[in-house]
Amino acid sequence: MIHRFRSRLIAVVGALMLLVVATACGGPSGGGGNGPSKDGPAKEGGTLDWLVVGEPPTLNPKGYTGALVPQYSALYDSLVQVDPKSGDPIFRQAESVTPNENKSVWTIKLREGLKFSDGTAFNAEAIKAWWDHEKVPANASPVISTLTSFKSYTVEDALTLQVDVGYPRAALYNDLAFTSLGMIPSPAVVESSGDAFGSSVETFAAAGPFVLKEWVQGDHMTLVANKDYWDEGRPYLDGITFKLSADASTNADAVVSGAADMAYQPFPDPAEQRVTDAGGQHIFLPDVQQVIVSFNVAKAPFDDVRVRRALVLATDPKDISDKAQSGLATPVTTLFPEGSSLYDPAVVQKTNDLEQAQELIDEYLQDTGKDSITGSVLSPDNQAADQVSALTQNWNRLDNVDISIDKKTVAAYVSARGAKDFDMVISNSADPGTFVEEWLNKWSTGGAANTQNYSDPELDKLLEAGRGYADQDERKKALNEIGARLMEEAAFVGLTYAQKSVVASNEVRVDAMINPSVPDPAQISIG
């Protein structure tokens, strides 16, 4: 809905690059980088109603997942962003992040005058305090293994933190952009709130473009513009209301009817075409992630590679796309999609072989004396569940296999996944961001994000060898070697390549993207 807005225009600065947008003039397409989604200058003021499919169980960054990027980005911002097209760093709360020659020591320099929404100073001590908090095992941080791997991090002056990693870590930009290392809350509020930090308006303060005004859990979250935001003239909007609504098709129809201004789409949906047919926008960038199902190898029978390989072989990714996304999602064939700078046609996922799959199942059952293969796939109660439903139909074609779906609310799904309480789980693959480090967290033995309990000494060697690569060709080679090993050991099954997006009214203007599917809340305008 379009609300009151001030008429003062803000000039758009910088060269304009093509953002992937479909309007009434054409259908969805791919390509391009950050840049305005529509012509003309951005307008200041107004509020935006944004439908989202998930709600954070807490605003503590340990609950951060891909489906919650809009809320976290609006409230926290980040020290750094990474341009989703070029991979280049975009400095945000950090004025600069500078490595030494071999990228083992980094210097983070903050902008002057940063403040948290509780009025306290956002300085180098605040970063150190948060990282110290994240290193405490009881706080269950997803970045604890990253922090404990660092040799040291020290405050040099009020605005400068020096990080001695102790080994080449080319991915530090990604750490500061996509993990809780770069989402810094007020130390005063973290300390005073204790375990309740991030659970309410009163127990939260950060330094993003918006400030939390109201949170009715299970319904909506109301944000207002942060008058002390570091980027003068932004955010353009006076406020955002995030409304929880899990059905992507219904959400798209709400944009068409004017009941909402924008809606997050976690999967391709025919409803997106209804938005563009009505004159609205479908906004996204190409994505290298897959929608995958990972096996919890701490639980039998998924600790046996024969069972995992059998289920991968019994998977028909095209059938899953046809049933769950009306054929709009691209089925996984190779590790990275064709057209990606990381694409290698030799790294292929072997699927659609029921005969070989059945042989492996029969062999396992005979060797173990078991009667059947049973288990469930943990899924949030959104369109991911449609893919899981189609997947279990694929698998249950096998004799003596009975796999079900364990469908939960997004908050309960996040909690169960974090607690490793699942047999199998659907998610997006860890985004390498063209850096090996992101996969090291996900797949290395004891990795912070390794909720599937995976352990493979050969894989660990590949991950460790590739973690410091800064050269793009070296990273491509390392990532595909790692992916080939994961596929050989059937660590996961890829279903479709991720294509998350937003649909929006034609009154909405998006100047930049946080990632391939989420607009930068500070750079959205309306009217």
Query: What is the CATH H-level superfamily of the largest domain?
Result: Dipeptide-binding Protein, Domain 3
Count of structural domains = 3
Q: Quote the distance from N terminus to C terminus.
A: 10 Å
Describe the global form.
globular
E-strand count: 25
Structural class: alpha+beta
The residue fraction in helices comes out at 25-40%
What is the name of the CATH architecture of the largest domain? Roll
Instruction: Quote the CATH topology of the largest domain.
Output: Dipeptide-binding Protein, domain 3
Q: What is the CATH class name of the largest domain? A: Alpha Beta
Task: Give a brief rundown of this model.
This protein is α+β, with helices and mostly antiparallel strands. 28% of the residues lie in helices and 23% in strands. The chain folds into 3 domains: 5-74 and 208-285 and 500-526, 3-Layer(aba) Sandwich (D-Maltodextrin-Binding Protein, domain 2), CATH 3.40.190.10; 80-189, Alpha-Beta Complex (Dipeptide-binding Protein, domain 1); 290-497, Dipeptide-binding Protein, domain 3 (Roll).
What does this structure look like?
- The protein has 527 residues and is of the alpha+beta class.
- It has three domains: 5-74 and 208-285 and 500-526, 3-Layer(aba) Sandwich (D-Maltodextrin-Binding Protein, domain 2); 80-189, Dipeptide-binding Protein, Domain 1 (Dipeptide-binding Protein, domain 1, Alpha-Beta Complex), CATH 3.90.76.10; 290-497, Dipeptide-binding Protein, domain 3, CATH 3.10.105.10.
- 28% of the residues lie in helices and 23% in strands.
- The chain has helices spanning 69-76, 124-134, 144-149, 172-178, 187-193, 248-257, 271-277, 305-313, 317-325, 354-368, 383-395, 410-418, 437-443, 457-466, 472-488; strands spanning 5-10, 20-22, 42-45, 47-52, 80-82, 89-91, 94-99, 105-110, 152-157, 160-164, 210-216, 220-225, 239-244, 262-265, 281-284, 290-295, 373-380, 401-408, 424-428, 492-497, 501-504, 508-510, 513-515, 518-519, 524-526.
- The strands form seven sheets. It has an eight-stranded mixed beta sheet with strand order 2-15-21-14-4-13-12-11, with helices on both faces. The protein has a five-stranded mixed beta sheet with strand order 18-17-19-16-20.
- β7 (94-99) and β8 form a beta hairpin.
- α14 (457-466) runs antiparallel to α15.
- The longest helix has 17 residues, at 472-488.
- It is globular.
- 53% of the residues are buried.
- The model is unreliable at 1-34 (pLDDT under 50).
